[in-house]
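User: structure tokens for glutathione transferase, please.
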Amino acid sequence: MAGGDELKLLGTWASPFAIRVKFALALKGLSYEYAEEDLASKSDLLLSSNPVHKKIPVLIHNGVPVCESNVIVEYIDEAFAGPSILSADPYERAIARFWAAYVDDKLLASWVTILFRGKTEEEKSDGKKALFVALETLEEALAKCSDGQGFFGGDNIGLVDLALGSQLSWLKTAEVMSGEKFIRSDKTPLLAAWMERFSKLDVAKAALPDVDRVVEFAKMRQARMAAAAAAAPNN
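Assistant: Done. Predicted tokens:
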């Protein structure tokens, strides 16, 4: 690596937050060491690198840790040469940060409710409704941000593309496990075309986990949660 930079990424294979960092590293053509973390038994390196939140992902650059996925992505963009992830224009950067936060606040929260947090069918149904609303909102955002081009970043993928793209395997998992199609060409045609386009990118192929593997992971997590709930004493 140019300049003798040493990069190490602490993450978990299924984490969309770690996946988006992998996207950014691949986009910049950077080589790095990857360390898979066991979140049930966190490594001393993770705990010392992120003592505040004790969460992945963490990027360690020449021995110095950087935490929080979107912060890491912006750090990679500023620290290394290669395709720009954020625009040089302050307003466009602000808009990208807004929509990247929306993806995590609304979209991710919706499929997490469908798969894990929703305890009743009503709660899961509310999660589905919230997911459709989030996707419709992102459809409108894509129309405005892309300026008629292929990505939220215009001609090239940007921060919002990485944030949304990192959740594609989980969105497809939610579709498989709920029996509901969420990204539909008749409802959100721009997003459907965007998903096809993004999935064919080399950075996506290199980092997105296999949907079948994520489905099995989600089923195992659901089973563990159900067993824990059954074992918990009644209040």
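User: Anything notable?

Assistant: The beta strands are 7-11, 33-36, 58-61, 64-67.
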